[in-house]
Amino acid sequence: MDLLGRRAEREAVEQLLTQARAGRSGTLVVRGEAGIGKTALLEYARETAAPSGFRVESSVGAESETQFVFAGLHQLCAPLLGRADALPDPQQAALGVAFGLRAGLAPDLFLVGLAVLNLLAEAAEEAPLLCLVDDAQWLDEASAQVLAFVARRMSAERVALVFALRDSGAGDDHPFPGLPALRLEGLGETDAQALLAAAVRTPLDDGVRDRIVAEARGNPLALLELPRGAPPAQFAGGFERPDVLSVPRRIEDGFQRRSARLPAETQLLLLVAAADPTGDTALLWRAATHLGISPQAALPAEAGGLLEIGARVRFRHPLVRSAVYQAATAPDQRRAHRALADATDPQVDPDRRAWHRGQGVLGIDEEAAAELERSADRARSRGGLAAAAAFLQQAAELTPEPAARTRRALEAAHAKHEAGAPESALRLLTVAAAGPLDALQAARLKLLRAQVAFHTTRGSGVPEMLLDAARTLTPLDAALARETYLHALDAALVTGDSDRGVLDVAEAARAAPAPPRSPQPQDQLLDGLTKTLTSGYAAGALVLRHALEAFRDNLLTDAEPDRQSDRWLRLACRNALAILDDELLYLLACRNVQLAREAGALATLPDSLRFLSITSVLMGELARAGELATEATAITQATGGVQLRHAHIILSAWRGDQTETTALNAITAQDVAFSDESTEASMAQYAMAVLHNGLGNYPAAQDAAARAFESPELSLSNLVHFELIESAARAGQLERAVETMKQFCSRARASGTPWALGMAARSQALTSTGSAAEDQYREAIAQLKHTRMGGYLARTHLVYGEWLRRERRRQDAREHLRTAHQLLSDMGAEAFAERAARELRATGEHPRKRTAQPTDSLTAHELHIARLVATGATSREVAAQLFLSPRTVEAHLRSIFRKLGITSRRQLRELPLP
């Protein structure tokens, strides 16, 4: 199709190719209605790229391929697999399992994405690479997610990606939101007339020509095809104007009319070709033989410009395929699918055979359903949850026996939930609920309804739903019942229900059955949380400690990791905060990130990174915290996940950045996804308390801390106690400060860690006077020196120095204020550092300003890469850890070297990094 008038669009493609040739990878999502010229623009890209040295690979989505896991991705990558040996072993394995080339555990979707990213980067080392994906709206879900991830993580590769995407009418509801997009509009009148003149060789009356141009609305395919399907008489009188039909629908109707005029045998052959999206010529003829169709039947379709049969079977346009298929009767559609199933080798392509067989069934068929269930198992083993769910759903629909249909519907619902399709999961649960359910199936159905509700609403009713499921599971599956009770406790804390609501859940969890085997770490965690919440912190702290030590020991053992325990590692980390054990906290948080990295679990890695970022803030490692939070944001953006802000807002608060902290708090408050009681909102209030304490705005700090204190999650973690005690004491609200201090000191005694005891002494000092206060300040500093909590040690020097100055002991005050200023400045806690500077100036000393460092010019991402390279890691090793390509790491290194004024990795290792 000609690209008349598409100058801006051609220039956009040319610019993309120029960037890729220069090592600045890029993506373009071409959008528009059917027939608007998207494929023509992709062909222009191909024709422009090939002569200039590009390697060009392509893939085409097909509507009937959407449930074949990684089908679109394999089509694109298959010619490049010879380079897979250059990938790290985990990436090779992930790609091999995903494409069905080797056996193994189902890979994480985004580890497959990293493998594809590096495969494309490897291919582009030899020559720049152009990847074209047409009809991307019909890619299978796994392929679309991987390609979106790759597009967002590419940076310095010689790769250009172009996706052609048919508009769905749903705004930005497509697989590639946020990527650079180009919308194709209709041709202008002059160009439309020129294209029409080329399509219709006979002279046209001006009025007829104008009517056709108006009818086509600038759609190039309409201008080419509508005249071909029109009776000659219409050229004399113009077209009728069926306003109810869109232009693509009218084009499709035109194709249907043209195919309907063909011989019956040709129509059936067209239908078989339309039902098979692979374009396999041999398969088409085998199926045709089953139906008794002769090869000559293809000639009228080819002569009519609807179909080409060569090395591949190609339709003139995807609308021809859909027009032919939709025009066929249901019995003929089933005949075509049965013929394709019979023609498909069950050893070579069992899944496609099962799918065609299922489509060919009228009513129910157990054998077809069983085949589809086996296909679902294969899809799941390759990491295709969405594909497995689709196969299971179809299997359930074909199952004649009610109990088996119920089982398959329930399994399909679980798969839909795991694949992130909650509405489909609920519909399947309705199907399952109608059939005969045994007791365990009924309990699992309740559990799944609760899990879907937790992930979609985070509503206050979710914990009770989980409790109901747990009670039902108790006599049936003790291990699952205990996990469900633990999930209910976690949900009660996360949803931000009242302390009473959390206590009610904890009371109910006391009825959990005994572990059916030797207690696992998650079993101990359930017991510890239940005891802590029902019997008090002092009674439960030791049980919680034993649980967390069990997680630690499980992580440090050389045995195969316990994946069930790993699922609860995030909750274990949060409870290490609750017992104020900085060593356990740091180890569990680091291992949580490490395990997610090793597994390539990019869906869960951002959450692990955010928690480690907050841990790093408390340790006073604000630069490191910034790197982690930035990485979490980048990965979430690349995977299309929900962006959570709590790590960034807590970091900006400790940095004393009033503008950013206030802005992030306002965004969180306005976000309808988070209620005022949610943990996300409460963390924002905690951050505001830290910010205002740093700025010395103690009434505002107390107000924010008091609101955060209402969160069961933050109250259990103890962090908000520190801010509330300091702000209330300094705001003159001594009674509130003392009340909170007493509660915390009781917890600190039960914990007994240096961090707990140090913060207890600090809290007592803030609410005391005279020699008692001094003894407690000294005790706090002595204890905190033996912890990882550098942020709190620095702030304790600050409040001690402030107290000494008010006691008119200037010399002593200067010592601690100087230490506080130095520590806080070095870590980047600017508001607290300025608070120390004000106090120093009040003693008559002018604090030295922090000397600018070369590393100050690095972004958080660059600092992260610099830190890893400084440890001796190669670019390939850094790339694997950060889910980048080695070439992107090298590009960042060049920027780092330029900013730091160095030329080698050795010099980088010699530089002090913050």
From TrEMBL:
All residue ranges annotated as the HTH luxR-type domain in the record: 851-914
Keyword Disulfide bond included in the entry's annotation: no
Protein name (database record): ATP-binding protein
Alphabetically ordered keywords of this record: ATP-binding, Nucleotide-binding
Gene3D superfamilies: Tetratricopeptide repeat domain, Winged helix-like DNA-binding domain superfamily/Winged helix DNA-binding domain
PANTHER family with a match to the protein in the record: TESTICULAR SOLUBLE ADENYLYL CYCLASE (PTHR16305), TRANSCRIPTIONAL ACTIVATOR DOMAIN (PTHR16305:SF35)
UniProt-recorded Gene Ontology molecular function terms: ATP binding
Organism (species): Streptomyces incanus
Cited SUPFAM superfamilies: C-terminal effector domain of the bipartite response regulators, P-loop containing nucleoside triphosphate hydrolases
